[in-house]
Amino acid sequence: MEVTNTEVKHYFEELQQQLLAQQAHWEQVDPYPHAVGVLMRANRLGWYEKILPEIENAIHTLEDIDYRKDFIN
């Protein structure tokens, strides 16, 4: 089964929206770092801060591939 760039892009966009919602939830639930522990909060929110730019970069790369594909065909 072949997957198109558009399908992959939609997957990453949906994943990005889910992660943003989860990040907002954790920031709302745990607005104070001392409530759970500074290291746990840093690890949890640090993961979101690390993965979200990677997903955004993947979306931009897929858009660039689609744009350049028009010139190749």
Automatic annotation (TrEMBL):
The molecule here is called: Uncharacterized protein
Q: Which organism is it from?
A: Marinilactibacillus piezotolerans
Phylogenetic lineage: Bacteria, Bacillati, Bacillota, Bacilli, Lactobacillales
